[in-house]
Amino acid sequence: MRNTKIYNFTIQEKVTLIDLLAKETELSKQSLKRYLKNGAVWYKKKGRKKFERARRASLELFVGTKVQFYYNPHLEKIESTPIELIYESRHWGVWYKPVNILSHGTKFADEGAVERQLQQLGKKDVYLVHRLERETAGLILVSYDKTLASKFSDIWASTKIEKKYLVEVRGDLVEGDKDKVIDAVLEGKKAETYFRVIEAREKTTLVEATLPTGKVQQLKSYFADLGHPIVGDRKFGRGKKDSEEIKLVAYKLKVTDPVTNRVFNFEVPEEKLEHI
Question: Which single residue of 16, 17, 211, 272 has CA 20 to 30 Å from 229?
Answer without folding.
Answer: 272
